[in-house]
Structure formats: structure tokens, C-alpha cells
Amino acid sequence: MHEAAKVAATMILHCIFSVVVGVASALILPTLGPRPELGYLGALDSDDLFSELGKQLSPGATIIRRDNPVVEVDDEDDVQKTVCFANNHSLPFLAIDGSHGFISTLGRMQGGIAISFMKLKQIKINPSGDYADLGPGLTNGELIRGLWAEGKQTGIMLGGGHGYLQGLFGLLADQILEAHVVLADGSSVIASQKSHPNLLWALKGAGHNFGIVTRLKYRIYDRLSNNFLREDGQPPQLINWYNFMRRPDIDSNSAVIQMRMIYAGDLSGLEQYAAPFLALGPASVENVTVPYPELFRINRSDESSQVVCGKGMYRHLFPTYLKRHNTTALREVHRIFTDMTTNSPVWGYTNPAYSNDIIAASKAMRQAMVDGSGSEQLHAYVNYAFGDESPPEMYGYAPWRMQKLRELKKKYDPKGRFNFYAPIGKPSD
Q: Rounded to 5 degrees, what are φ and ψ at 117?
């Protein structure tokens, strides 16, 4: 590491976590930038929204903000009616739940209708205990706490789904057994291995492009004990990552590196993996033992975290997916980050004039990581994408995959109504 960088190592034990295949590095920077704007619909559309659509919705549904409309749906039929209304009035629409989308392409949403799922938070565990029916309005925290109370655990996500349990059970998208989907024309289908299997395949990695998921049948697992360990390489219950951050109490001139190791097992099992990092002489070491639901709070990634889930803060993410780390590249990233934060070390800002400088520096860090990986290709995790990535950079370079996705796009969304989040492009692209 850079000589000016000091290591703050944090080891969190006895938490179910997993190894990431390769290395996913995301530079998370809060900025002011493009965002969805529902926009003023005009008197005619606003009146129609209440008089026409309002009468069609279920009693539990609500329309709020006449000029900036949000339809809080109460069932799948409400979603279908809202989509049909938007189509009939040539209005764009966007489904929202936890409002945790960062990608800049969401800024293309102008003058439309938001479809909110905040009333649809059901968790219904099947008597077998193998799966649960989940509502689309659930946040990760609500789902994890709800299942934990019943002796179960899982994670939830479309778009691939890196998560804390992937080393043990696979990607989160692998847990999807069935999805109820409202398509662009307002019709509803069930995607499963028996019905619309190709749509189910597409939803798992590129679901933002194909429809609105109104219910998921999702695999769940019994709460596991914390005594897992493999001795051949990094075990599935271990993950580590690091953050560059400003800690003037440790180093007043340069950014420090905070290293985190999360492991499901006893302390003796972790020691062999922690030893190389402890040998660097970290400025501080903290050991914390927490149950799985508490992991998000400890890592400052739960609903209370201003950094990750705080409202009113703009963020840009610049992910890279690497097979290996290059120390020269890491030094360059550390240098850029240190230079960028020297004059403004405070988290976040309110002056949009800073955005161009922030984005330029972030792209430079991303490119340094790619160059150091020995590959000319950028691989970006779609759920963290900034928005300037090409479809192959987000969905994979294999020609057959992009062709299949675009053929399915033409079948299920021929008019491109779902093009606001990481669009895959047209069949001819």
C-alpha cells in the first residue's frame, strides 16, 4: 500500500457472509446529479389521473401529489390499471420501492407516474419452510428481520444479487423460483421454469428491462450455526473488503484504508485469514460478534445509515469487477481519492458544480482498477452501475447472451417502456 496510508482493520465475527467470485470494487460517492423527475403532468392529465384511474383502483390504493403523481398500489391489479392508464395517455412510468437506485439513466424518467410498492410488504412462509411468497415493497432489512424471527434467512434482489449468503447458497437471484410480472402492455404473467422460463432467466440478471415484479416465490433457509470452515483457500463464509476514508485522528494528510473481514465461525478459524492483514500493523483492530440481522447495522448499511440509505443524498457508483487486485493500481486509486478529498473531506456536498470534478476523478479511479487488472474490458455489476457503461459491460460480453436478452426484450417490451434502469438496448444494437 501507499506509504502514507495506514490500515484500520475491523474484523466482524460469527456473521453469515460469503466469498465473492472475483473482486467487485465499487467507488461510492454521494453527489448531486441526474435523478428521476416525475414532472408536472398538466391539468388534463392530473384530472384524468384522479377521475379516471382513481375510480379503477382498489380501495386500499392511494394517489398522492397531483402534479407529481405517485400511485401507492395495494395489489397486482392496481399495477395493471396504472400501467394501462399510463399507456393510454402516453406517459412514462417507473416502479419504486425502497428508492435505492443510483444509476444515472434514471434521470431519463421525466413527466411520468411513479408506482409505489410500499404497501406490499407481505412475507408468507410456505408450510414446508422451503420458500416464501414475498411482496415487492420489502426492504432487505424488513425481509431479513421478518424471516429471522421465524428461524429462517435469505436475501432478496434481482439483477444478479451479490449478497451475504452467496458463498453458501449462490447468488440471490438463484433463489427465485417464480415471479408474478406485469408487462409493458399491462398484462400479467407468471415466470417460472414451467411458464415463461426465458423470462425468468432474463429477470434474474436484467429484470429492470422486462416488467414489474409484483410477487416473488423465493427460496429460504434455516438459520445456520456459525461453525463453517474450509481449509482450501478462502472459505464460503468469509469475505473481506476495504474502504478509503478520512480519519484525521489517524492520518491528517492522507486517506486511510479500513479493512473489514466478515466470517461465520469461531475466532481460531479466522486467524489464518486475518494474519496477513494484522502483520501490516493496523492503527486499530475491533472484534465484534453479532447475529446475521445485526450485520447490516454494524456495517452501516441498514436503514439508519446516512451513507448508504440516507434520504436526500445523491450518489454515484463506479463498479469494477476484478479477478485480482493490483497494488500499483490501488496506490493510484488511493492517490486520486486523497487528492480529491483534501479540500473537501466532509461526506457529501450541496453544490452541483462539484459533480463534474467528482465524476471525472471517480472515472479515473475506475479506469486505474481496470488497467491494473490486465484486462481491457470493464465488467460492472448492474445494480451498482453508474450509467455510462455499455450493455455488454453490465450484462456480459458473450454475443449469445446479449442477443437472447434483446430478443426477449422485443417480445416482452417491444416499445421500450422499461428503459430507465440499465437498458439493454434494441435488438439491432
A: -105, 20
| 8 A C-beta contact, residue 361 and residue 319 | no
> In this structure, are 182 and 239 located in the same domain?
no
Q: Are 393 and 378 in contact (CB under 8 A)?
A: yes
What CATH number does residue 188 fall under? 3.30.465.10
Going by their DSSP bridges, the two strands 221-222 and 212-219 should be labelled as unpaired
Decide if 13 contacts 270 (C-beta within 8 A): yes
Last residue of a domain, one of 224, 251, 270: 224
Q: Model pTM?
A: 0.82
Domain residue limits at 21: 7-33+234-384
Q: Are both 288 and 195 inside the same structural domain?
A: no
Q: What is the pLDDT along the chain (429 residues), one digit of tens a residue?
A: 333 333 333 332 322 222 222 233 344 333 333 445 554 455 446 677 888 999 999 999 999 877 788 999 999 999 999 999 999 999 999 998 876 677 889 888 888 999 999 999 999 999 999 999 999 998 888 888 899 899 988 766 666 777 767 777 778 788 899 999 999 999 999 999 999 999 999 999 999 999 999 999 999 988 865 533 333 344 555 656 667 788 888 888 888 888 877 776 666 777 788 888 889 888 888 777 777 777 777 776 666 666 666 666 667 789 888 878 888 999 999 999 888 888 665 555 656 667 788 889 999 999 999 999 888 899 999 988 999 999 999 999 999 999 999 999 999 999 999 999 999 986 554
Q: Total structural domains in the chain?
A: 3
Does residue 50 contact residue 378 with C-beta atoms inside 8 Å? no
